[in-house]
Design brief:
Elements lengths: L15 H20 L3 E2 L5 E3 H4 L4 H6 L3 E3 L16 H8 E5 L4 H10 L8 E10 L11 E10 L5 H17 L3 E7 H10 L6 H8 L2 H15 L4 H11 L5 H11 L4 H20 L4 E4 L13 E7 L6 E8 L13 E7 H10 L13 E3 L4 H16 L4 E3 L6 H10 L4 E4 L2 H6 L1 E6 L5 E5 L3 H10 L9
Parallel strand pairs: 1-5, 7-8, 12-13, 12-14
Antiparallel strand pairs: 2-4, 3-4, 5-6, 6-11, 7-9, 9-10, 10-11, 14-15, 15-16
């Protein structure tokens, strides 16, 4: 029986064309991160489960990929012992793949706090893993591109991240809208409906509105012990009409008795003042249904969606006041945002937004006519590479048709040929594949001609 290779569901292979497009996205995001003064770090793919567990809520914990301990991981367990899956996993697994980049970043801050200058601005572009059900725009392995400021509670940081979003998606030519809310406002709303102790189940439920709809969210709230009367009081608040400032004005009256709710309104008004002053190109709005279910958010929360493609959030983040506290470093506030590179890729593919020159292929191919001819080409090949032009020599003296097909398949724009006649006359035959033009060029002028070609954008009809 022949083994048929496959990859796990929710993961993907990336060929050269796809990688070129993905790298284009990474390069744009990385360039903007640097422009805003963020510094790069990396953390391990795996973390201790003690680092990860309890930071994402019960549902997030269920989506952690756990790694079996090395060696005989069942050693010490009584074969007759009855263990359910949750208890067994804790006995045979001590590590897990990272779920996001924020919690490992908090762990990094605590471990390296004596070498860090605060406020610390870092960016991180690495893959994360979630044991989720694969579907369009949702993968089990995917990249996050995070930027965080830690060690400052200034709302200028929130405004800067929205400005960063504006610049990134402006450069990528993606039309987006930004939704903004504040967890303190949500806490105030929970007090307003008489259930401040139910903030977490409330936020987890309303965070699913776009996915499962109002009816299912209502059912989940009931299952979590929230009475129908409280739900009926909640719904008009969540779906309040008006522009952002009008909603904040109405909330001021509703949440007048909630100190935390008033604080959230004050912070949101200050953030909106900064955004008004920045005169950004994107659209932003207060969305009271925005909850972002991660437990560590404590202040502003941000979510970005593509206007023209139904794919869900492509970027999001928020304020976390004491995430490092669980690791022993209390009182350190932070704000971060994460760009979902995989969903951004899907949006750009659907809207045909990648530039034509995204795919970086070989620019010049020397055909191989034999050992003597290859030896004639090698010095020029090396000189082109020294001038930062991508060039290669076909490795085998195969039929010319096969070598030209190779150039076609790789979209190589220029083919350089040197046979016995060219060697005798000290020249090269150069073929521009797109137009089919072919010219003989003296060997002393080859490098200059090819350099000129790449200095003249889209000019394939070079005048010698």
């Amino acid at each position: 029986m022949v083994f048929k290779p496959s990859i796990p569901k929710g993961t993907r292979d990336f060929g050269p064309m796809v990688m070129s497009r993905r790298n284009y996205i990474f390069d744009v995001i990385r360039t903007m991160f640097k422009r805003y003064g963020y510094m790069p770090i990396e953390t391990p793919a795996m973390e201790n489960l003690s680092t990860l567990l309890g930071k994402y809520g019960d549902e997030g914990d269920k989506l952690l990929f756990r790694i079996l301990n090395s060696g005989d991981f069942l050693k010490g367990i009584d074969p007759g012992e009855s263990l359910v899956a949750d208890k067994l996993s804790g006995r045979i697994s001590e590590k897990g793949l990272r779920y996001d980049l924020t919690v490992p970043f908090a762990r990094y801050i605590v471990q390296n706090r004596h070498e860090i200058t605060f406020p610390f601005k870092r960016y991180q572009i690495q893959p994360v893993w979630r044991a989720d059900r694969p579907q369009k725009g949702r993968y089990r392995e995917f990249y996050q591109c995070d930027a965080d400021v830690i060690g400052s509670d200034s709302l200028l940081n929130e405004a800067e991240l929205v400005s960063l979003v504006d610049d990134v998606f402006g450069e990528l030519n993606i039309n987006v809208e930004v939704k903004i809310n504040n967890r303190k406002i949500l806490s105030g709303i929970a007090e307003y409906i008489g259930h401040p102790d139910k903030l977490i189940p409330i936020t987890i439920a309303i965070d699913k509105l776009d996915k499962i709809g109002l009816e299912e969210v209502t059912k989940e709230l009931v299952d979590k012990g929230i009475p129908h009367a409280a739900i009926q009081k909640l719904q008009p608040v969540l779906f309040m009409e008006g522009n952002s400032r009008e909603k904040l004005g109405k909330l001021s009256s509703l949440l007048d008795d909630s100190s935390i709710g008033r604080k959230g309104i004050e912070e949101t008004n200050e953030l909106f003042d900064y955004l008004d002053q920045m005169k950004l190109n994107l659209n932003w709005d207060l969305d009271l249904t925005l909850a972002r279910g991660l437990n560590y958010y404590t202040g502003a929360i941000i979510e970005v969606e593509a206007v023209d493609v139904q794919i869900g959030s492509i970027c999001g983040g928020g304020r976390y006041d004491d995430l490092t506290g669980v690791f022993g470093l209390e009182g350190i506030s932070g704000i971060g945002i994460s760009f979902g590179a995989d969903r951004i890729y899907d949006v750009m593919m659907e809207k045909n937004l990648f530039p034509q020159k995204t795919y970086h292929t070989t620019q010049i191919l020397f055909l191989n006519f034999g050992k003597k001819e290859s030896a004639y080409c090698l010095p020029y090949l090396q000189e082109l590479r020294m001038k930062n032009l991508s060039a290669e020599l076909y490795p085998d003296a195969d039929k010319i048709r096969k070598q030209l097909k190779y150039a076609d398949n790789k979209q190589i724009p220029i083919v350089v040929m040197a046979g016995e006649k060219e060697i005798q006359q000290q020249l090269f035959s150069v073929k521009w594949m797109q137009s089919g033009d072919q010219k003989e060029i003296p060997s002393t002028g080859l490098i200059q001609v090819l350099e000129h070609y790449y200095q003249s954008i889209n000019d394939i009809d070079i005048k010698l």
